[in-house]
Design a protein that fits this description.
The complex is a heterodimer of chains A (517) and B (286). By secondary structure, chain A is α/β, with parallel strands linked by helices. Chain A is built from 20 helices and 14 strands. In chain A, the strands form 4 sheets. In chain A, strands 1, 2, 8, 9 and 10 form a 5-stranded mixed sheet that branches. A 5-stranded mixed sheet of chain A has the order 3-4-5-12-11. In chain A, helix 18 links the parallel strand 11 and strand 12. Chain B folds into 2 domains: 227 residues, Alpha-Beta Barrel (TIM Barrel), CATH 3.20.20; 42 residues, Alpha-Beta Plaits. Helix content of chain B is 30%, strand content 20%. Chain B contains 9 helices and 11 strands. Chain B has a 9-stranded mixed sheet. A two-stranded antiparallel sheet of chain B has the order 3-4. In chain B, helix 3 crosses helix 4 and helix 8 packs parallel to helix 9. The longest helix of chain B has 13 residues. The chains are: A alpha/beta (517), B alpha/beta (286). Chains A and B meet through helix 17 and helix 18 of A and loops of B.
């Protein structure tokens, strides 16, 4: 890009009436980063990136902060912060004030914190002697502040798996306030989480499309007790996070292939899997060795994050199209999600990728034993005719039971998250216990993440984050207070998110900024 | 208990959110002894008589002249277009099938972790009481399935002997009461309602009356006076009954129902409030 082009792009951002001041600044920063050279990669890797066989999710040319960061907020609350000049909080209101201040200083790819902590566990030590009314009023003020100060739907908190007054109050506030922020996940443990709490959460989904539900025992098996679900469907270690997220477009890999499934698995796939790993390694090395993020950031210097808890996310998407293309090449009619042979092929592909990732050493990933975390990536708004992660294509989903059976076997492999969204009939509202039954069944069948939404409420779930339907509709005309509504508007346009009949909504994660287009 | 017992099945759904509490596996049995004006699945009423009119009209060639009384179905070719049902000169379908209790157990087993229970509906389920009894008994005797509750969704026409047969293995019955008034009932269903009223009382006595369902069809049974009289009668049974007020829906009905309009929310609320005022606390509008 020459200086004239750069100036033109900068002017375009500066004068874009759909962008708020903060988004203009965010995009201008990205534009500045894009004039730096990309981290050193091989010619083959650069070509794969250029052809969008591999996608770096437009994270930028010169990574200067980790993509997803999960600060150890409990440690911060216990020790205070020298950088923030804050003493350890003594009561509930001090604690909420402390957290709100700290959130403004937590970096991420979006510029907003993607993890707010497990807020029930963090606040329970402060509610002894506090009345339910005091808790409600303080949390309500805090909840409104989160939405207004951090207007990005990837800002995410977790509650559960145990039942407690803070979690209940949060669900109540979610129903009352119906905000986009924060995104919420309920951790579900079949032995610890009562039906009654899950049902309360289900009733909350009926109102505003949150929370997500995650299989707590499966998460702790892969990540340990101290994990968090952040952004959308990204499960990582607390006190750690993910340096980067690079994703492999399996549809494009299939289009590069000639031959049968056997040679796809032994020849074609490993080549692109390694190019993906190469890109991840180059980005990690730049972040850690050149940008020195872990040497400078106060989260690291105060011990609130530790590079030993970090890894990187190795994403895949377009599995459905990949399988269907390979089936076509073999003269078979079966489709992913509907046909046993196609589904078996899909499991062979994901387990092969899992093996390749598990055998590829990666620097600075001690958070996962020196390897990347596998992630089924939920898409971004520019994806066209390629399905998110391991999802069944929008509009082609089978019945819910078949759908769960088809996708559940993949969930075991994706420690860093996998998303399948089920769109349910409005009649579910009169029978919330039915959704509790289905969630429990889904986790017994090995699902890791479970998200459902109703067709009729006022939110559209795009990838795991929500946007208000009204925000999407008015975005083109006047912009939105939420940065994520920009991504949502692109998603609805490009992926038929609204066509999704009764089972799901869609998927996208980050939109490339205008600077890259 | 006989796992080889055969039943005539219209279809089953592995997941249903609307056929009782929680998520349920539902079997719709073929055949009904009522002929309700408001029926929204009339193809479940009659047994196929083998006229084979549908065979040539199937656009997917999924039907062939059968070896039994009804056409054979190629389920791989069938696209669920329902043209066979539309052209059927009686109220039936070539798509029903004869299944054994064992067949259904094989279908239920993988869904069991997702379920609160099983509901047998129809058609009129109680026309095949031995099949229901053997299915429910098998569920109750299976350690992987005995957490499931067993419910029957019925028009209430069955005799006490049928309920006695099911009682040991059935957790409850959901009974439709179309009309308390004998003439209205006859007009709505082509059958008298004596057996329905008797079933409601009998099941309540056995503590097996899960709920009473009151379908509201404007012009037929929608007056507040009707609701008031029905409430008076139901109060003689049990004031703690669960009542479901169900608005008539045109979807799936025959031309005979074309003059009936769907009730609005206001009408249903008025009726529900009449039952609430009469002392029923558990009244839900569907």
């Amino acid at each position: 890009m020459n200086i004239t082009e750069l100036q033109a792009k900068a002017r375009e951002i500066i004068a874009d009436p759909t962008l708020s001041f903060h988004l203009r600044r965010h995009y201008l920063a990205y534009l500045a980063e894009s004039v730096l050279p990309y981290p050193t990669i091989s010619e083959a890797c650069a070509q794969a990136l250029d052809k969008q066989i591999i996608c770096d999710l437009f994270e930028g040319n010169a990574p200067y902060r980790a993509r997803y960061i999960l600060p150890d907020y409990s440690k911060a609350l216990a020790q205070g912060s020298e950088f923030l000049e804050l003493e350890p909080p003594a009561d509930l209101d001090d604690a909420l004030n402390f957290l709100l201040i700290m959130y403004t200083q937590v970096p991420s790819i979006t510029g907003f914190p993607v993890y707010l902590g497990d807020l029930d566990a963090l606040l329970l030590p402060f509610i002894d002697g506090i009345s339910a009314d005091h808790l409600y009023r303080s949390l309500r003020r805090f909840w409104i502040a989160l939405d207004r100060i951090l207007p990005d739907a990837f800002v995410h908190t977790n509650i559960g798996p145990t039942d407690n007054l803070v979690a209940r109050t949060i669900l109540q506030l979610e129903r009352e306030l119906q905000q986009v922020v924060p995104n919420v996940t309920l951790k579900v443990d079949p032995d610890l989480t009562p039906d009654d709490l899950i049902e309360d959460a289900v009733e909350t989904v009926f109102v505003n499309g949150k929370p997500h539900f995650v299989n707590h025992p499966l998460m702790t098996r892969d990540l340990g007790e101290r994990y968090g679900v952040v952004s959308c469907y990204n499960s990582l270690k607390v006190g750690g996070g993910s340096h980067t997220l690079v994703r492999l477009n399996l549809k494009e890999v299939a289009l590069q292939h000639q031959g049968d499934l056997g040679t796809f698995l032994t020849d074609t796939l490993p080549v692109y899997a390694e190019l993906t790993a190469e890109l991840i390694e180059a980005r990690i090395r730049f972040l850690v060795e050149d940008a020195g993020f872990f040497d400078h950031d106060f989260l690291a210097t105060e011990g609130l994050i530790d590079i030993e808890n970090f890894s990187a996310m190795y994403g895949i998407y377009g599995l459905a199209e990949c399988v269907n293309l390979l089936m076509d090449m073999q003269g078979r009619n079966g489709r992913y999600g509907h046909d046993t042979e196609a589904n078996e092929m899909a499991y062979r592909i994901t387990s092969t990728i899992a093996d390749l990732v598990a055998s590829r050493p990666m620097p600075y990933t001690q958070g996962n034993g020196g390897r990347c975390f596998l992630h089924s990536q939920s898409g971004i708004d520019t994806d066209i005719e390629v399905s998110a992660g391991t999802r069944i294509p929008i509009g082609d989903e089978p019945t819910m039971f078949e759908h769960i059976n088809a996708v559940a076997p993949h969930h075991d492999l994706f420690a860093a998250g996998v998303s399948d969204i089920f769109h349910v009939e409005d009649t579910a509202k009169r029978n919330p216990q039915a959704m509790v039954d289905i969630i429990r069944g889904a986790f017994k069948s090995g699902m890791r993440d479970f998200t459902f939404n109703l067709a009729t409420n006022g939110f559209i779930r795009i990838t795991g984050y929500l946007v208000r339907k009204s925000d999407v509709e008015t975005f083109q005309a006047c912009g939105s207070r939420y940065g994520s509504a920009t991504f949502g508007a692109g998603s609805v346009k490009n992926s038929h998110v609204e066509d999704r009949n009764v089972k799901r909504v869609g998927i996208r994660e980050r939109r490339p900024t205008r600077a890259s287009q | 208990m006989n796992v080889d017992r055969r039943g005539h099945l219209n279809k089953y759904l592995p997941f249903s959110l609307v056929d009782g509490p929680g998520n349920r596996f539902v079997l719709f049995l073929q055949g009904c002894n009522f002929d309700c004006v408001v029926c929204h699945n009339p193809y479940t009423i009659d047994e196929c008589n083998g006229c084979n009119i549908c065979v040539d009209l199937c656009p997917d060639s999924a039907l062939t002249l059968g070896t039994s009384t009804k056409p054979d179905v190629n389920h791989f070719a069938c696209t669920d277009c329902d043209i066979c049902i539309e052209v059927c000169p009686i109220d039936s379908t070539p798509l029903s099938s004869y299944v054994t209790v064992g067949d259904m157990l094989d279908k239920i087993r993988p869904t069991a972790p997702f379920l609160s229970g099983i509901t047998v509906s129809g058609g009129e389920a109680t026309l095949q009481p031995e099949f229901i009894r053997d299915l429910f008994a098998a569920i109750k005797n299976d350690p992987d399935l005995n957490h499931l509750t067993t419910l029957v969704d019925s028009n209430g026409s069955a005799a006490p002997a049928v309920w006695d047969m099911l009682a040991p293995v059935m957790d409850g019955a959901m009974i439709d009461l179309k009309a308390l008034d004998a003439d209205t009932h006859l007009r709505m269903t082509a059958q008298a309602n004596g057996s329905v009223l008797a079933s409601i009382r009998y099941l309540a006595g056995l503590d097996l009356l899960h709920e009473v369902r009151l379908l509201i069809a404007p012009g037929l049974n929608d007056s507040i006076e009707t609701a008031s009289k029905t409430a008076d009668w139901l109060r003689t049974i049990d004031e703690s009954l669960t009542l479901k007020i169900i608005g008539f829906r045109k979807n799936g009905t025959r031309p005979v129902a074309s003059h009936i309009v769907e009730p609005d929310a206001e009408m249903l609320t008025g009726i529900a409030n009449t039952y609430r005022a009469a002392g029923f606390s558990d009244v839900l509008i569907i």
